[in-house]
Amino acid sequence: MAGVKHGSDPAPEGRDTDAVTGAPQRILPVLLVLFVGSGCAALIYEIVWFQMLELVIGASGVSIGVLLGTFMGGMCLGSLLLPRRVAQHHHPLRVYALLEAGIGACGLLLLFVIPHVSGVYSAIVGRGLAGILLRGAVCALLLLPPTVLMGATLPAIARWVETTPRGVSWMGFFYGGNIAGGVLGCLIAGFYLLRVHDVATTTVVAAAINGGVALLAFALSHAVRYQPTATARAAAEPVAAPAPVLTPATRSVFLVIALSGLTALGAQVVWTRQLALLLGGTVYTFSIILAAFLTGLGVGSSAGAYVARWADRPRLVLGLCQLGVVLGVAWTAAVLGRSLPDWPINPALATDPWTIFEMDAARTFWAVLPATLLWGASFPLAIAAAAGPRQDPGRLVGGVYAANTLGAIVGALGFGVFVIPAIGTQHAQQLLIGLATASALLLLVPVALAWDEVSRPTLSRAPGPSLAAVGGVVLAVVTATMLARVVTPVPPKLVEYGRLANVAPPVKALYIGEGISASIAVTEAEGGARHFHVSGKVEASSSPYDLRLQRMLGHLAALLHESPRSVLVVGFGAGVTAGSFVVHPTVKRIVVCEIEPLIPRKVGPYFEKENYYILDNDMAEIVFDDARHFILTTDEKFDVITSDPIHPWVKGAAALYTREYFELAKRRLRPGGIMTVWVPMYESTDEVVKSQIATFFDAFPNGTVWSNAVEGRGYDLVLVGPAGPARVDVDRLIARLEREDHEFVAWSLRDIGFDSVIDLLATYAGSARDLAPWLEGAAINRDRDLRLMYLAGLGLNLQRSPRIHEDMLSHRGTSGTIFDGSETNLRAVAERLVGAGSPASSVGGAETRR
Q1: Model confidence at 839: pLDDT above 50
Q2: Of 36, 189, 324, 795, whose CA is between 20 and 30 Å from 646?
């Protein structure tokens, strides 16, 4: 039992079997290998299921919270249910094998079920609370069966060992092995399987791992005899029963391990956001962060398991471990807020992605390892502190695991959805320090005041407070308070320029804010231009070049349409694209879909002049939702849909560049409708740009490309997808802009360097038919693989846009195949197309949207 030294453990069969229920101890390392495989498969599933379900229920903060809560809730439920529903006399390896086989079967089933859920979900989904409840119901229906099985695996195999110190230590090793497998699964899925293959192949690999684990467990169950523990045999007798796990003496331990889970997942949410700013929010960055976090937990769990075997007073050690978490959180806060942002390195110099990954991994491990080691060690120490004689090992481990997971759910949802948006990452980390301190004091104060008799090795002295112990507690509180006070806010330059903060130009910060989905900033450059930043990238600005791109997205669509009345704008940004529709006289309704509620309210007012006061316009409606989820679930149809999402290398953005997304949008267009999409050529590769264009043309076969160039050199593009034929009547457009009701449209175009219709049409860069040879073999980005996200993440520091632009223009037809009109006007367009390719080379210098 807890508190008994290893040397005093009963060992009727010697050292080889004192922790094992009648089986040789040499099988325990094999069980450890099984748990590595189990953890590997579980993390692969988690990544795949999250990627698939975000396409159905959306990627908003609420949706992610529901998804994460359901996944972890199922794990918690499984850890509680198995010890209560499965009797101890069943062979643990057979139970474990059945669980693994069930997980694999569920994984394969979900591969086919999830895509079909989308249609049913979109037909019945509502808004507000009803919509949130439906998202929860969908996640519960799909994820609870496999996650309950996942949560049951650790309690199942825990029955192989006794609740002695040595047995408890093996439980910690099993937990650590499971996490080690999770690290492997995270890296395999993020860096290879989903980059090279698709979700189907990735799921089959995970199911194969489950199958291999199940077969090996079945084989071992026949090769190794299982003898139920004395506790299990006593439980079968009517006069005896296993000792309860939750007693007055252990309640504090369960509360502490719950707080440990809360602080661990709360910190992961906070630090992931800050590290994504520092490293760039690619899918690879998130894989590195998760792998580093899990590595610390796994190594810490193994170390804690070893300590638990020899510790006389595991509660005291657990309390000291929580006190160490206070120092660990303060360390990471200092490293992320003060140290790493000022490292004398220029990440933009590295063009090889694997070099970037190595540097990112080094910085991530340096930042998060101390605290994660201590959180990992807390789990086996909590088992040791709660263990007692005649306990069911499954119930013991299941209870501790459930408490830890429940705390983790509260931490992940609380900090992600409520704490960070309400008080910011600085105060969130101060809150973490406070919670870790409280967790430590729950165990250390009773020891200091000699209230905790169970954790004392002897009762040789009368109970009473130790002056040294009380002084230590007071010192701990004072130290934690001082550490909390020195936590700094997130450096503004990280929110503004992220991974390029060290080489960014000096700017004046006008606003810094942290929302549910992103950190945002508004700055003013020396020349007066204002920039809007999202998570370390400039997404919009008032500079002439950026202003031109933002208005092109609106004006091209509105002018190429016969008479647009309703518009959907995906992404508010600075509001410039949405505002460009205000001046078109036929437009009566503008719907803006924005995932981050903070952006319109805080950013829009800084760009009122450029966005034509869109927030004060009665025809505008702001909808806060994931754009894909909104388009999937709305019944409204539009004449124009324009989409200006964040750069495709940002995790999750590729879902707004898939063929299925474009098809969804196409179905929301009225007859004659038009869709426009932004495509960046900077920080990209030929393969990525071609993938975006080819995917768009796959959904809009009459699509065209229009270039926003700087002195003839390409920078970014606007894709135009008509629901019908792509024909441009030049004469009609000229006459339209000369009408009195289009006076402000013409003025808005002149403001961005387009003095005539010919200037605007000269940005034409090719049609789907023109560019077909250039796009041959391009990867089509689909929901089932989101290949674009993985391709784009490899081109962060590459600046190949001029060459990509030249290659594309070399395939552009110059005979005016999409243009109609008088011979004079067609000749003018053709002459401009053969020229420099830029209608406004005199428009100010380019502003890099990084």
Answers
A1: no
A2: 189
226: three-class secondary structure by DSSP: coil
Beta strand pairing status for 669-680 and 713-722?
Answer: antiparallel
Architecture of the structural domain at 19-242 = Up-down Bundle (1.20)
Instruction: Decide: 471 and 499 in contact? Cβ < 8 Å.
Output: no
- b/e for 318-336, b at 16 or more Cβ within 10 A? bbbbbbbbbbbbbbbbbbb
User: Could you tell me if 359 and 345 are in contact, meaning their C-beta atoms sit under 8 angstroms apart?
Assistant: yes
pTM of the model: 0.88
Tell me how far apart the alpha carbons of residues 65 and 59 are, in angstroms, rounded to a whole number.
9
User: What confidence tens digit (pLDDT) does each residue in 222-270 have?
Assistant: 877 776 655 444 444 444 455 566 666 688 899 999 999 999 999 999 9
* 557, amino acid identity: A
Alpha helices (runs of H) in 642-795, residue ranges in sequence order: 659-667, 686-699, 730-737, 743-751, 757-761, 768-775, 787-792
245 membership: H or E segment, kind and range: none
351 closest CA partner among 788, 682, 848, 799: 799
CA atoms of 182 and 262, how far apart (whole Å):
20
Q: Would the CA dihedral through 237, 238, 239, 245 be positive or negative?
A: positive
Classify domain 245-456+464-489 at the CATH topology level. Growth Hormone; Chain: A; (1.20.1250)
Indicate the helix (H) or strand (E) that contains 723.
none
The per-residue b/e assignment along 167-184, b for 16 or more CB within 10 angstroms, e otherwise, is bbbbbbbbbbbbbbbbbb
- CA distances from residue 34 to 210, 550, 706, 791 in whole angstroms, order as listed: 9, 54, 55, 33
Q: What is the pLDDT of residue 167?
A: 67
Amino acid (one-letter) located at 723: A
Q: What pLDDT does residue 606 have?
A: 96
**pLDDT of 790 above 60:** yes
The alpha carbon of 124 is separated from its chain's Cα centroid by a whole number of angstroms, namely 27
Superfamily of structural domain 549-834: Vaccinia Virus protein VP39 (3.40.50.150)
Q: Using the 8-state DSSP alphabet, how is residue 823 labeled?
A: H
For 393-413, what is the mean pLDDT?
89
Backbone angles phi, psi at 280, to 5 degrees: 100, 135
Q: What percent of the chain has pLDDT over 90?
A: 49
